[in-house]
Design goal:
The protein contains 15 helices and 20 strands. Nicotinamide-adenine-dinucleotide binds next to α7 and α8.
Length: about 500
């Protein structure tokens, strides 16, 4: 009998008001039911938002370094539970244990980073244009934050939002993906055990309708979302109507450029990790390989040889490199692009099918796949497939590589492999993306660096790094006039007026 899980509202674990549940299953073996989770209704969102609102005055007036002390304990507990959390994550969303350990490690790094920033929530002091007057800015928390996340980094990505939001003094309604509710619950358990006070973090489980209720809720003051561009744009429309601050982290179609002068050994390792790690289900996955014609055949041949050595399987087993896709609809979507690609005239070089291994028939597995002959406007080069599918495009110059790389609506990550320092530095400016790697694949975020994209990937905000605190704080401007008289700014009393 699989476990029955609850929402976490105002410091207690409670069933959803509609009384219904949904199951979370292991994508490597769909007979394996991880647990049943509350399918929350609007009343649960009401309760969670009310608890967060009630907890806000005390939490926001707790000295920031004291909030930091609790976040440090959160990091310590994540570290203690790292292997158990990684195992639960692999069981729930499929990526191999080495990757899920990395996911938890990113959460640990984020906890310690956010904790340390609580001693540095700086404003500015600025000279006044008038005598005996002091100008400064201070940071105030925003209020109740509604945090809605995807399933592919089910612990790391929520912590990119939860930890800085808490550090800055906000309270939270958290709605994890319906594909990773167990990871969401385990993360909130860590916060509870670390001593985050009742009402400061609230968890409501469920699907997009619950996410929609969080966004619309009048007591939710700001929303941060990670997920698809399609859903993000809908949330954007709602937040525009309600004049609610919103941070969006959405899809990607990330290019890796390999120039003729690149170190091909390095590029080979990078492309395998970038394209087939997490079964291609990363917002930053390398999904377009833009390769100079002089090295195209050699690189594609080497990728094919190396991809044959990748082991597909249950990520909890030793030696597995590539886990399953998340669910049946993801598998069907990836399968549909096999026909789309060939209809468009691209050449399927390897992969393109589900594995025939009898041990893998109970999961959503798909072979690492590569298409050549892809041209810039094909759907294979434009649309986020979110699976282990690499599209190879050929170019004959740096300028053409950049034009092709930028020919997409997305703008999350990008990379260039080259030994030419001029091209490396030019690419940092030329590539239309929030992130550029030089001589590294399109993946590899670090917790203390800003993370986010341009164009249809984002809306100008960043998770991670110092920049995330700009979203979770309001800047307040303060003037202190100690001259003892009324001084009027911009009136004709300036010395040279
Ligand atoms: P999704 O957009 O389907 O769902 C994301 C979250 O939004 C889930 O919690 C879902 O329940 C919720 N949701 C769905 N409809 C909603 C609505 N109308 N209102 C409010 N909430 C709603 O995405 P997914 O399939 O979970 O994740 C994959 C996508 O996420 C990919 O496009 C990937 O690129 C993107 N992603 C982006 C980043 C990033 O930082 N840029 C990171 C990870 C994943």
């Amino acid at each position: 009998m699989a476990d029955l899980f609850k929402n976490y509202i105002d410091g207690t674990w409670q069933a959803a008001t509609p009384g219904t549940t949904f199951a979370s299953r292991n994508p490597a073996s769909f007979q394996d039911v991880i647990g049943h989770f509350p399918a929350s209704g609007p009343a649960d969102v009401d309760d969670a938002a009310a608890a967060a609102q009630d907890a806000f005055p005390a939490w926001s007036s707790t000295p920031a370094p004291e909030r930091g002390r609790i976040l440090k304990r959160v990091g310590d507990l994540l570290l203690e539970r790292k292997n158990d959390l990684a195992d639960a994550m692999t069981r729930e969303m499929g990526k191999p244990l080495s990757e899920t350990r990395g996911d938890v490690q990113e959460a640990i790094d984020t906890a310690y980073y956010a904790a340390s920033e609580t001693r540095r929530l700086f404003g500015h002091t600025v000279p006044s244009e008038l005598p005996d007057k002091f100008n400064m800015t201070i940071r105030r928390p925003v209020g109740v934050c509604g945090l809605i996340t995807a399933w592919n980094f089910p612990i790391a990505v929520p912590t990119w939002k939860i930890f800085p939001a808490l550090a800055a003094g906000n309270t939270i309604v958290f709605k994890p993906s319906e594909e990773s509710p167990h990871c969401g619950a385990l993360l909130v358990e860590v916060l509870e055990d670390a001593g985050v006070p009742a009402g400061v973090i609230n968890l409501v489980q469920g699907d997009g309708t619950v996410g929609g209720a969080v966004v619309e809720h009048p007591s939710v003051d700001a929303v941060s979302f990670t997920g698809s561009t399609e859903v993000g744009k809908k949330i954007g429309a709602t937040c525009g109507r309600l004049n609610k601050p919103l941070s969006l982290e959405m899809g990607g179609k990330n290019p890796m450029i390999v120039m003729a002068d690149a170190d091909l050994d390095l590029a080979l390792e990078g492309v395998l990790w970038g394209a087939y790690g997490t079964t291609g289900q990363r917002c930053t996955a390398t999904s377009r390989l833009i390769v100079h014609e002089d090295v195209h055949d050699e690189l594609v041949g080497r990728i094919q040889d190396a991809a044959e050595g990748l082991t597909l399987g249950d990520g909890r087993e030793e030696g597995v490199d590539v886990g399953p896709l998340i669910n049946e609809s993801a598998l069907k979507k990836v399968q549909s692009y096999m026909q789309i690609g060939q209809d468009e005239g691209a050449t399927l070089v390897f992969g393109g099918t589900t594995p025939d291994n009898p041990d893998l028939q109970d999961g959503y597995f798909f072979e690492p796949t590569l298409f050549t002959g892809v041209t810039p406007n094909m759907r294979l080069a434009q649309e986020e497939i979110f699976g282990p599918v690499l599209s190879v495009l050929t170019v004959s110059s740096y300028e053409e590589a950049v034009t092709v790389a930028n020919n997409t609506d997305y703008g999350l990550s990008s990379s260039i492999y080259t030994e030419n320092v001029r091209h490396a530095f030019q690419a940092m400016h030329d590539l239309e993306a929030g992130i550029t790697y030089v001589n590294g694949p399109t993946i590899g975020a670090e917790a203390h660096m800003p993370f986010g994209g341009v164009k249809d990937t984002g809306n100008g905000h960043r998770d991670g790094g110092w920049e995330v605190f700009d979203f979770y704080t309001e800047t307040k401007t303060v003037y202190v006039d100690y001259s003892g008289q009324l001084q009027k700014a911009q009136m004709d009393n300036a010395p040279d007026a």
